[in-house]
Amino acid sequence: MVGVISLYEAATLIVICSAHIGATRIFAAYPTVSRWLLDYSSGLGLGYAFLYLLPKIGTMSTGLRDGSGAARGIVDHQLYFYMLLGFLTYYLVDFKRHSSRPAPLGLTLNVLSFSVYSALIGATVVHLNNLGSGVYVTSAVVFTLHLFGVNKFLYRMYPEDFDRWMRWLFVAAMFVGAYAGTEIERYNPLQSVATALVGGIIIILSVRLKLPARARVNTRAFLIGVATAVLAVVIYSGAGAL
Fold first, then answer.
1. What distance in Å separates the CA atoms of residue 206 and residue 156, rounded to the nearest whole number?
2. How far apart (Å, rounded) are the C-alpha atoms in residues 201 and 51?
3. Distance between first and last Cα of the chain
4. Is the per-residue pLDDT at 143 higher than 90?
5. pLDDT of residue 200
6. Which residues contact 168 (CB under 8 A, 6 or more apart)?
7. How confident is the model at residue 208 (pLDDT cuts 50, 70, 90)?
8. φ, ψ of residue 170 in degrees (nearest 5)
9. Cα(116)–Cα(134) distance, integer angstroms
10. Got the DSSP string for 82-118?
11. pLDDT classification of 2: cutoffs 50, 70, 90
12. Are 222 and 39 in contact (CB under 8 A)?
């Protein structure tokens, strides 16, 4: 129903939002745990990119092409182009103009990117369409843990901004995305393009920014993150959520 979020969806969104709301307290109170979560999230993000995101972009590309009746070129219908654009944009931006002060352009890009990502998570939860409690629990666990890693990265770059307003913006964006998800169909063209653009950023974060040198990474946490992504994909696939 348009504009209505189910109890399962609301509960899932509230759990996921805890990764934004409680992030700074977790980071301050449990530095060892937050370090583990960052390595875990690196593995989870990498698995998410290769096992979920890339196949999803392929499905979205097919849906857009079939919906139009004919392919009109790479800009209109090849979502991998938008993914590459997101990847290159994030790659080329200088996030620190000086060693101690983040660049305004980098801050703006991060805020926009992860606001959109939070909104897409909200829409994704709504589009699960009551496939069963197992899918909602899986979504809550996977997205919450992944966002803890993302937020750790953002908190290291912008500690004051993240604590003061950034995390609340992400919470608002998630519920805006959830509401939008009740009014648009799954794989809506605008949602598909946004997913592709942000997907490119998620990939480069996992590979370049969030994935540390092997000598410094907690390999066990990293591999558990990858295994979590594999398990989530198996559960999603079995429930028809992919």
1. 16
2. 16
3. 21
4. yes
5. 87
6. 20
7. low
8. -65, -40
9. 26
10. HHHHHHHHHHH--SEEETTEE-HHHHHHHHHHHHHHH
11. low
12. yes
pLDDT tens string 66-94: 655 554 555 456 788 888 898 888 888 76
Six token digits for residue 14: 């509230």
Bridge partners (DSSP) listed for residue 169? none
Q: Nearest CA to 170 among 231, 110, 234, 96?
A: 110
Nearest-10 crossing angle of helices 167-183, 104-126:
40
Residue 64 and residue 73 in contact, taking contact as beta carbons nearer than 8 Å: no
Give every CB contact of residue 160 below 8 A, 6+ residues apart in sequence: none
232: nearest Cα among 5, 43, 11: 43
Place of tokens 């991060």: 110
For residue 141, give both structure tokens. 């666990």
Residue found under tokens 């959520």: 241
